[in-house]
Every structure is written in C-alpha cells, then in structure tokens.
Amino acid sequence: MAAKGKTAPTVKVQQGNPLTKWFTRAVVLLVFLATYSWLDTIKDRWYVFNPKSLHELAQAAIAAAPSPDDTTFMVQYIAANLTATYPSSQIALNPNTSEWVISNAGGAMGAMYIIHASITEYLIIFGTPLGTEGHTGLHTADDYFNILVGEQWAFAPPNLEMERYPAGSVHHLPRGYMKQYKMHEGCFALEYARGWIPLMLPFGLADVLSSTLDYVSFYHTARITGREIIKNLLIGKI
Ligand SMILES: *[C@@H]1O[C@H](CO)[C@@H](O)[C@H](O)[C@H]1NC(C)=O
Ligand SMILES: *[C@@H]1O[C@H](CO)[C@@H](O)[C@H](O)[C@H]1NC(C)=O
C-alpha cells in the first residue's frame, strides 16, 4: 500500500511531461533547420574546384589522348594536372590512379576512381567499357558529368526526346532533379559534385545492401571516401 502511494505521484509527474518534451524537441528541430539553412547559404565558400575549369581540363585530356578511347591516358592526365594545379595545403587529392572500386547505384553498374572527397565536393572518374543504365539519384548536390570517352544519354519527362552527351560535353544535373540515364556501350566521365556530399552516400551504397551484397566493394568505397574526407578535414577543407 505504502509503495503504491509513493509511485502514484511519479506517474502524475510523467503525465505532465509530454508537453515539455515536445516543446524541447520542436526547439531542437528548429535550431537544426536554422543551422542547416544558414550553412546552406554559405557552403559556396568551401568550394575549391569550379565546373568551368574542370570542363576545360576534361577537353584538354581528350585532345591530348593518343586515341579517343584511351581512358587510362586521360585519367592520368587529369590526375597529374590537378595535383600540379592545386596546392596540397588547400585541398587533398588521391593521386593513385589505380585505386578503382566497383560501384552499383540507382541500378547502374561501373567502377570509380575517387580523386577527391570532402563534405561539400567530390570528384571521381566513373564509367564502364560495357555500358550501363539507371537512375541518376535525387541529390542534395549539383552534378557535372564531363564525358571523356563514349556517350551518355538521358531522359527527363515531360521532354520525350533523348538527351545526348558526347565526349567533350558536360551534362549538368542541378540539385533536386533526377533523370534516367544510359551509358550506351562504353563510357567514362569525370564527375564533379558540389553540395552536401555525405547526404549522397546512402544512394551510392543502397544497391550493395539491397541487391549485390558486395561487401568487399562496400568496404573499399567507405574506407577510401572516409580516408579522403578526413584528409581534407585535417587541412581545414570542409
Ligand atoms: C591543367 O589544365 C588546364 C586546362 O586545360 C590548363 O589551363 C592548365 O594549364 C593545366 N595545368 C597544368 C599544371 O598542367
Ligand atoms: C594504389 O592503389 C592500388 C589499388 O588499391 C594499390 O594496390 C596500390 O598499393 C596503391 N598504390 C599506392 C602507391 O598507394
């Protein structure tokens, strides 16, 4: 009886709590949204690369290549140019052009070499000599797909015509847009994304968890991405 009498007031106190609890949650949510909106307006100051010079670099790599399908040459040309252009105190780059990982995302399959990854930017070479097709993903970043070898096709309703991106062109997918795309036959591209990169990672890893179960590629993708993001944070590159 005594024990029951003691527990009753505690129950009453807990019944009074939910309002405070929900108020606290609402405040936390508002602070989070306000911080996100503020960071979103200033994120441009952390960008190091720019779409125009990367497009010029992609075109220069194509022009310098001994043949239009010499992907290896173009990749080495691009990595050498970037490491010579950007000081290592400003941005960390991965100079190892042999470090390719299998990538499955949005139903498409290929391989990628991660040149750079940080919180607000990434730069990769993505492609396959076989061709592939899938969903671009719906992203919190702007995406610039600089075609190096082959051709990329895209479809975005209500425009029922096929969009065509040959080598040397750039396919810009603005943040918040999505398309169906196809790398008809072999195609490789220099892909630059700027925006909130960590929010893009679930798209890049979902196919592994729901379909391929390729935990080896999953491990290397997570390891290399994490390593590059940390290397950049250590020199103050967000
Ligand atoms: C890198 O490529 C750009 C674009 O082609 C060119 O303007 C620049 O001179 C190159 N830099 C180096 C160090 O090769
Ligand atoms: C480059 O990457 C390849 C593949 O992961 C690896 O075998 C090699 O040791 C790396 N080279 C250097 C210099 O880190």
TrEMBL record:
The residue ranges crossing the membrane are 22-39
Cell compartment(s), UniProt:
Endoplasmic reticulum membrane
Q: Which InterPro entries match?
A: ERG2_sigma1_rcpt-like
Q: Name one Pfam family in it.
A: ERG2_Sigma1R
Question: Which key words tag this protein in UniProt?
Answer: Endoplasmic reticulum, Membrane, Transmembrane, Transmembrane helix
Instruction: Please give a single GO biological process term from the UniProt record.
Output: ergosterol biosynthetic process
Question: Which GO CC terms are listed, alphabetically?
Answer: endoplasmic reticulum membrane
Q: Which PANTHER family match?
A: SIGMA 1-TYPE OPIOID RECEPTOR-RELATED (PTHR10868), SIGMA NON-OPIOID INTRACELLULAR RECEPTOR 1 (PTHR10868:SF1)
Family that this chain belongs to: Belongs to the ERG2 family.
The protein's name is C-8 sterol isomerase
